[in-house]
Amino acid sequence: MKLGLRLNLYRAARLEVPVETVRAAERLGYHSVWTAEAYGSDALTPLAYLAATTRRIRLGTAVVQLAARPPATLAMQAMTIDALAGGGRLILGIGLSGPQIVEGWYGQPWGRPHTRLRDYVTIVRKILDRTEPVTHDGREIQLPYTGPGALGQGKPLRSILHPEAPIPLWLAAGGPKNTALAAEIADGWLPMGLGPAGVPSSMRGRPEFDVFTGATVRITDDVRGTLDAMRPLTAMYVGGMGSATHNYHRDAMARRGFAEAADRVVELWRAGRRAEAAAAVPDEYLEQSALLGPVARIRRRWNEGFVPPGVTGVIIDAAGVPELELMAELT
């Protein structure tokens, strides 16, 4: 089982990269450290910083948002960071986000996201492969661009910079279409809403195909208090991060077997009853992706099959180095 370290920098009002914690994870043999982005700090810049302050740990995005940059820009940034890191350390996890951010923050149409994701990943891979000047005639993205406003002078180009090593492309996905797309065109999957049944059989056992899920780890004598502290953020994501027609966090909760509770959280949140929405988040739902309590309790839950079948790695949200050490011992 591979271990990753999750950095929640994107949720902070001030950016502070915990370099010493990342170095501790590296010393403990962690496979990777992971950043993300929403509408605060971006996912890639901290990885460039960590490339200079670490030596071996892999640098992953979970995830970069598709709408944040054209595919060529993402490929350029990926090759640049991986070169700074010494080659072979970067993992690009790519995700769609949702229409509230895509249209509200990036000023782009939601369009046909499944089709756009296929075009986007295909172009990034073509650029990274560097076998020929890049052209792509997709339904959502075309290179060279020949649409409205074009001069008709676009030229197929090949990256000046040569990749130091292959850069794997992973997809974050939850729904059936994009999950199938991840299995078809990606090198790994970051599942959203993976339940106890685990990874679909069709995606298991593929050589070099990784599936990483997440886990919050807290060594504490106050399990109840820790669960209660987790509820408001969970309720905000499930109830407040989606629209009436596109609510991926609600859908993820439902896929994990808590559809009725998810609908109740959404209902209460939209009614402005946020404390009640938080209280409606079930303990069992939180503990599906959390290892909380004294060391003996965490060890027992891990050994009883905490990780769903087919998962190859767990990205840890740790309170500190003791949690990192414990998870390194358990694996």
UniProtKB/TrEMBL annotation:
Q: Does the keyword Transmembrane apply?
A: no
Q: Which keywords does this chain's UniProt record carry?
A: Oxidoreductase
Residue ranges constituting the Luciferase-like domain according to the UniProt record: 18-311
Answer yes or no on keyword Chloroplast.
Answer: no
| SUPFAM superfamilies to which the protein is assigned, alphabetical | Bacterial luciferase-like
> What PANTHER family is this protein classified in?
5,10-METHYLENETETRAHYDROMETHANOPTERIN REDUCTASE, PTHR43244
Could you identify this protein by its name?
Answer: LLM class F420-dependent oxidoreductase
